[in-house]
Amino acid sequence: xxFLHGILLFGAAAFLIPLxxxxxxxxxxxxxxxxxxxxxxxxxxxxxxxxxxxQLLLLIIRISIPIVLALCLARPVITALxxxxxxxxxxxxxxxxxxxxxxxxxxxxxxxxxxxxQARQDLQTMLxxxxxxxxxxxxxxxxxxxxxxxxATTDLDLVPxxxxxxxxxxxxxxxxxxFQAATSALKDSPNxxxxxxxxxxxQEADWKAVAxxxxxxxxxxxxxxxxRPQITFFRIGSDLAENLSIASADISAxxxxxxxxxxxxxxxxxxxKRPWQDIPVHLEADGARLRTARVSLAPEGEAVLSFTHDFxxxxxxxxxxxxxxxxxxxxxxxHSIVQVRNQLNVLxxxxxxxxxxxxxxxxxxxxxxxxxxxxxxxxxxxIRTKKMDLRKMRNEDLRQQEVIxxxxxxxxPGHIQNEIDKFVKxxxxxxxxxxxxxxxxxxxxxxxxxxxxxxPAAIKGQARADSDALPARILMQRxxxxxxxxxxxxxxGRLQDAEFRHWFEFTPQGDQVQxxxxxxxNVPLMVEKKHGRxxxxxxxxxxxAAWSNLPLQPFFxxxxxxxxxxxxxxxxxxxxxxxxxxxxxxxxKAELGSxxxxxxxxxxTQTLKSAKEGDSVFVQSPPIAQPGIYQxxxxxxxxxxxxxFNIDGTESSxxxxxxxxxxxxxxxxxxxxxDTLPAYQALDRTRRHGSELWQPLLLLLLALLFAExxxxxxxxxx
Length: 718
Hints:
InterPro entries: Aerotolerance_reg_N, Class_I_gatase-like, Double_TM_dom, VWF_A, vWFA_dom_sf. This protein is α/β, with parallel strands linked by helices and 718 residues long. The protein has 15 helices and 34 strands. The strands form 8 sheets. A 7-stranded mixed β-sheet has the order 17-16-18-19-24-23-22. The protein has a 6-stranded mixed β-sheet with strand order 5-4-3-6-7-33, with helices on both faces. Strands 9-15-14-11-12 form a 5-stranded mixed β-sheet, with no helix packed on it. It starts with a strand and ends with a helix.
């Protein structure tokens, strides 16, 4: 037996109080002889014996009351009932439902079964073995961890039923987030015996950092709970070691003009130890196969293929690349959506017009955004620019524009500032380049407005690299912004070749401000902020060559094109999203209450209804569980939006963490380890789980109090 609050057992010492009082109150007997005493002697002897018994019983009851009360407060837990199958417990299972769990299982009773199917079968057996009165909860740990049920249930048959209705594909497992969700689920457990089981394939990509010593703060918190739960790492392995995948597919333009060639650079990865020869790779557009290339891959090697294609019709188009050859086909395709437009209208506000060629603040921007027009080429430019001198601007000039670019603008007149603020809030895009003419006091006071205005960050001041010092350069790192993803491959351009001699120091604040690029001086070069339905990007340098050689770099053209098209289409569906995420598209306010039909790659449909949150109207779907092209159509119209969903590439390496490393993690956190269901069952039988006894002790305490009152009254009457 153990106690949850053992220190309160010292309260049992209060039994000394009635004992001491009893001893102090014992009266000394005084013998007085008188003549008739012999007549009462026998009666007194009998009465004295009865009184001693009553007093002794009363003393025992009074001593027992503080002892039982202390036991009740200390919450005793008996540790033998579970071994007899009598003690109920609370079980929380962290079930890994990530993409890698769809691989074939190494040891399974299911013909052709996958790891996730075997995990669900083992979970059902674990639930069957639980004693009556036990509760269970499942935390689906792939992607964003979420509870299977609103709260733990004692109806254990409900868990497999609910699991059968949940899709089994999500993003990579985030161990610490999953343990946080398990801690939350365990707080409401009704039993003192509590257990957490991590049911996973323990993919190396998910657990390698933990095995190398990375902390799991959420697991440390879980271990500090009282009563402390039993934790078990239960590994279900896969027998699939070889796998090919499309690691990435970078598109040169997510928005294009009619007949404008689009480049697609595909990176194919071999995650196994065997070589692959002559693997066919297909390019598909709008569901039709266009052409096929072939590639060979060395063990754990990569290959890169390039395709080009152009669309001759305005609208949304799907562009996919697919490979053949291996048995694990879920990651053998990559899908994207390309928007074909007639044109994008961009307004250039030049704060410092130049008299000489390429001396104005927007001259380089004009060339970068309309390269074919400037060169008098036959190819069509998607972007159409309109350059305006700030001194001659009117409110009407902002109409029909999709993006506004400000370059070296000192400050905006009040009426223009209000119109630009309104333009962004209604879904427009704004790109602001700094410059020597900028009035930083105005930007901070009127344009930033302590975070309430459209400008993303306050300006701390201007910085520079001395003539005898090295210039600042773009910090090379893994870019995550949609407009910067293309530059993760060095073949898209060497961003670090740009040199910066002057720049403004931004001080971005809040979670809504995102850094797109940073300088190697630990300061942001470009930051972004959402403002209403639109977005604003601010650059800390000029758009011409006054402060840097950025406009002279070959990558300046694709960089400006991508930033502009991103801002112009930020309210539209993204080119692609990850499986396991939720589709959420903004709508016009007039579309509140409208119904939409979402068709998945297999042709199955579901109906979605638009909703409102604050001032925003949107349509939202449940988490998407299958990769491919989806079609979202507004009921009663022909308006269709194409959506693409892909698998996270980190899940394609099916290499599992060695069992020895899993055991090291388990030992570090005082947890157990099992790799088969019989091993887990044997482990479970040897462990002792407790059942609390404070409820019957409380009833005993009430009975003692009641008995003490009755006995006291009986003695008083006698």
